[in-house]
Amino acid sequence: MKTSLVTGGASGIGLEFVKLLLKDKYKVFIVDNNDKNLKKLKYNLNSNNYKFLKEDLSDDKSPKKIYNKLKNENIDVLINNAGFGTHGKFYETDWNIEKKMLNLHVLNTTYLTKLFLKDMIKKNNGKILNISSLAAFQPGPLMALYYATKAYILHFTEAISNEVKDKNITISVLCPGQTNTNFQKNVSTKNNKIQFNTASPEKVAEYGYNALKKNVTVSIPGIFNKFLVNLNRILPRSWSTYIVRYMQEKNRK
């Protein structure tokens, strides 16, 4: 039986990836640290072909712990979906929260990828999908570190995808725009004010999953989002940075 691992898989886009993998007859290992969402899995999934591991992926020991538990499961697909955001001026925000985000998005996503990729190299088979964002394509005032980490995920994925191009391995990165998940609750106390370009988590996951199966390295769902990633090519960088700040102030305050 084919096996897969989805981090942050108990809600939002991650949960939709789990559903798609179950539909394709994968056994799915779900990593999440939200007790409430983990308990809801049996109601949200029409399958018993999954197991969950409660782990906090902002803890620097978590990648090795997860790998040690699953290294004998012959993971065929790894989806690094877990993530969260912060909002505010960098000199005012909470470093302890930001450090956890850096650990999760950069160090631990990288290490988890390295651990499972080595096994995929040995068997010359496997697929990895990392979740970045439209935020990867421009600086993000008021969410400076979040945008920076998503740029890291994008460039890291593109680089290692090139390194395995001669092998039977696909490494892909999904860069969604604003999506109707609980992400907003983590970065603002108010509802999104900009609604016109908001996608459903089902559509975003389906787009990224199909891109992974088609060996597409970078996938960007939505025509308008494809336009937005080229802002820096159309406008001076200072202008695109100003536009991003304006949107953050409009959307998050």
Question: Brief overview, please?
Answer:
By secondary structure, the protein is an alpha/beta fold.
Explain what the structure shows.
- The chain is α/β, with parallel strands linked by helices and about 250 residues long.
- It has helices at about 10-25, 35-40, 40-45, 60-70, 95-125, 145-165, 185, 200-215, 225-230, 230-235, 235-250, and strands at about 5, 25-30, 50-55, 75-80, 125-130, 170-175, 220.
- It has a single domain (about 5-250), classed as NAD(P)-binding Rossmann-like Domain (Rossmann fold).
- It is globular.
- About 40% of the residues are buried.
- The model has no long low-confidence stretch (mean pLDDT about 90).
Sum up the structure in keywords.
about 250 residues; about 50% helix; globular; single chain; about 15% strand; Rossmann fold; alpha/beta; 11 helices
